[in-house]
C-alpha cells in the first residue's frame, strides 16, 4: 500500500493464506471420530476473469489437478461465480486439499488471487446430510455449512461442527459471516 492510499484511507484486503487448507485433514480426522465421512469432493469458488490470460490459467489448473487421477469439473452458479470441483476416490482428504491448493496457487501466482472467494471440503453427516467445511479467503477463516434444502440450513449441526473443529481450524467467530453457499457443487 502506498503513501497516498494511506492518506486517503484506502486499504488493500489481506492476502489469502492458501496454506490454511492443509489443516483440514486433521479436522477431518476429528470429524470422522464423530461419524462424519469425507466424500472426497471439494471445490474452489472464484470470480471468473475475462481474457485469454485467465482462461489459460484456469485450463492449466484444471489439467494439473486432473493429471493425478482426480475428476475435475468447472461450472458456473446462478450468482455469477465459477466453481472448479474436484473429486477423489476413497474420501482422500489430504489429496483433495493438495488439489484445491494447486488450483488456488495457480490463480494466485498468475495475479488472480483477489478473484478467490472460498474453498469447500465435503462430508456426509451421521444422519446422511451433506456438510461443507468452507474456507473464506478474504476472512482467512473456516466455517461449517449444512444445507437442508434449497434455502434452509441446519444451524444446530453447524454449531456442533464448530465445537468439534475449533481446535483444528481457525473458525470464523462471527456467525453473520457464515455465508450460505447455495448451489455449491456436491451440496
What does this structure look like?
It is a single chain. The chain is α+β, with helices and mostly antiparallel strands and 187 residues long. It has one domain: Ribosomal protein S10 (Alpha-Beta Plaits). The chain has five helices and six strands, in the order ααβαββαβββα. The chain has helices at 3-7, 24-32, 52-66, 93-109, 155-165; strands at 37-47, 71-76, 81-87, 116-124, 130-136, 141-145. Strands 2-3-1-4-5-6 form a six-stranded antiparallel beta sheet. A hairpin with a 4-residue loop joins β5 and β6 (141-145). α3 runs antiparallel to α4 (93-109). The radius of gyration is 17 Å and the shape is globular. The model has no long low-confidence stretch (mean pLDDT 90).
